[in-house]
Every structure is written in C-alpha cells, then in structure tokens.
Design a protein that fits this description.
Strand order of the largest sheet: 1-2-3-4-5-6
Shape: globular
CATH topology of the largest domain: Metallo-beta-lactamase, Chain A
Number of helices: 16
Oligomer: single chain
Number of strands: 24
Largest sheet: 6 strands, mixed
Amino acid sequence: MYLKYFYDKHLAQASYMVGCQKTGEAAIIDPSRNIEPYLTVAREEGYVIKIAIETHIHADFVSGATELAYRTGATIYHSVEGEENGGYQFDVSLPQQGLKHGDIVEVGNVQLKAIHTPGHTPEHMSYEVTDSANAEHPIGIFTGDFVFAGDVGRPDLLEKSVGVKNSAGIGASQLFHSLNKFKKYADYIQIWPGHGAGSSCGKSLGAVPTSTVGYEKMVNQAFQFNEEQKFIDFLLDGQPEPPAYFTKMKEVNPSGMTPLSEVPAGVQMQVDGNKAAELALEKQTMVVDTRNSNDYSSRNIPGTINIPFPDSFAEWMGRLANYEANLYIIAEPYHTDEIRTVLTAIGLDSLKGFLPPSVIQTAEKIRFYQNKTPKEVVHEQKSKDLQIVDVRYQDEWEAGHIPDAKHIPLHKLLHESDKLSANLPVAVHCASGKRSAIASSILLNQGYEVINISGGYNRWKEEE
C-alpha cells in the first residue's frame, strides 16, 4: 500500500493519495481543485489515478473530484446517505458511484470501507483502510471532517452558512452517536483527518497531521462526554463565525465547478496608477492590494482593499470578496501563480488581472493612514473626539474590550460602518493588528480619517 499526504497551508486542508503498488492504481481522498500535485506524484511514482473519493459536501474549499474526473477519467465515489443535505448532482456524463454504509471501494489490493459518520454533515462518510494483500484488519481511517487531531467537526455549518433551521442541534446529536461508535475502534487505528490547525471547520484543531484512536480517546475533549446533552452544549459553544464563502462552497460542491481549463487565468496588466484608481472605484469591481500593511498604510490607491498575502489571505478573501465582482489583484509577480491557485480553490473565478505594486507610484491621487500605539491613541482621545472601533469576533469582545469602544466585527464592517459617526476620526483595532489593517482600508474607502492601533487589544492590555 502507498500513502501520500498533501496539505494546503492556505486553507489548512488535507488530502491523500492511496495506491496499490502491485496494480499501479490510485485514489485521491478529498481532492482539492488544484489537482496538479496529485498528477505530478502519480506520474513520478508510476500510478494511474482511477478514483476520486469524497467524504462529504465541503464548505471550505472547492472539491477537485469533478476536475479529476474531467482530466483523468477517474470515477467519483460519494455518499448517498443523509439525503436531507440535498445530495450530489454531478454531471451525468462523469463516471460516478454512490456509496452506502459498509460499501467497499477497491484500489487494487487496498480496500476502503465506507463508514457513515453523520454529524458534521448528514451524509458524511469516513473510510476505513485495509491493505488486504498483507492484513485482515484495518490500519487506519480517513475521517474527513468527522474527527480531527484534538477536535471534532462542527455541526453548525448547515444552519449558519446554508440556513437549514435547527440542523446544528440535530448534527451535534448525530455526532455524539457517531463518536460513540468510533470509540470502539482499536487504539492502534490511525486517524487521517481532512484539516489541520487554522481551519474554520472546528474550534481547536491540532497542528499535527495524524493521530490515533487511542490518543484521541485520552486527550480529545470531545471524546470525554458520556451524556449527550453535555456533549451538545460543549460542541456548540464557542464555534467561530464561519466565513461568508462557505455558503458559496455548499452551493457549488454538490455538482462541481467549471473545469479550470475554462477559467480565465487573469492577465498581467500594464496600466498606470490613474487607471488602477478608476478600476478600484468602478461598481462590481474589487481591487485587492496584497502588500504588507506598513507599505499600504504609507501610500495606497483610493478604493482598494488591503488583504496582505499570504497571511490569512484565503480566509479574508473568502469573508470579504464579492463573488459577482470583477477581481483585480495588486501583487508581486512572483506571488501571482500562488494567489491564482488560492482564489480558484475558494471559487473566485472572476479574476481579471494582476497589477504590479509599482502601479501605486504612478497614481496622482493617493492616501494613507496612521499607525499609533494604544498610549498615543488614549492621549489623542483626551485632546479631541475620537471613536474607537473593535473589529474582533464576538467571543473576543465578550472576553474583554477597551472601554467606550464600538464593536463591529471585521466581516460585518463593509455593511455596518454606518453605525459610526461620519464626522469623527476612527481608531480601529483587533487583537494584534492584522485584521485592523484590513479594516483600516475598508474605512478609508468609506471616507473616514483612520488610525490603526498598532499591536491591537493585546498591546493595549499590556500598556493599561
């Protein structure tokens, strides 16, 4: 048996290649839309990709199952359990096979047994792996978004991202029962999860890529509950706000997206700063400046939004981007290929072009904002009217905040900045300064005089 781990650091998403060394057949578990890494490894190791396997309808990235089917002729295997989630509707011309609990997918001499593990989603499947050429018992299990290292999948995405009423509680109950069955596996069974630390599909995922059933029984807090209601209360408490793009992913993944060969790549544009400014101010157009926040704060083009690359770029593009808008990216040329891959991974196929950072130097109209420490802001607040805006998440705000600050989470700022006084300067902060830099660009676009509080709430607490 051959096993290869792939990891997308931008989305904290794991996928796997399972191969039979005797027959040269291979399967990809939860493929991402960019299938080139799989094709490269298959070519180098002498495998033919015959199978694409889905654990569930993903909410956080565009599945590459249909891309593999189009490009390689691979058969898509997917769950037909839990029909209340709508099920899959792949193009009938694509080779595909629905799976029920207990069905077996054969990859040469490797057997993948479908195990229905509802909770994260109603249709969720895990896949028990047995190298039948050498053993009668399974070696491990691909758990998808069911069990992670240190966590379990969140059950509230259907309710929060798709609007399926009361599905969070139902999903949590299903997950409790799925876990009780899972605990019966032998301690040595390996766990190969679909995500790592940083994913929004759980609240406390570990950074290690694999685990075992025995280890999770000992340390995973979700495994410690014997009473269903206490488990449900624990699981639903403190789940992070899902990114807005999760709704789009749940919309496109049941049927798959346009093949990448038909998606415009985005051209390298040679325009001056004035033309870039015109683009930034057009309706249904979004110009994203990916430079670091210090460079952006000192000189930037009106109408642009600052989402630095690579720090949390995928997350905040997914939270803030308009999927119907024409998209232009200001970025260093050596970043463009990677940025393009990130964008298509979350379904942002409306990329029109890339602009080099040098375009900012030729713009006649430029703007800036100031970066000041909490002490400087407090001193300035005493001498003139100044409104402080906290753009952290709700749970962060509830844990503690600057007195008299106004709370508008960053993902809501585009539509709720009218809660602020239009005539007063805005001092904006998050926990450390990364999110407030994005917020500063949004507030500049809406006409505010902006101060970014360097170091954010964390530094304010230190200087208090």
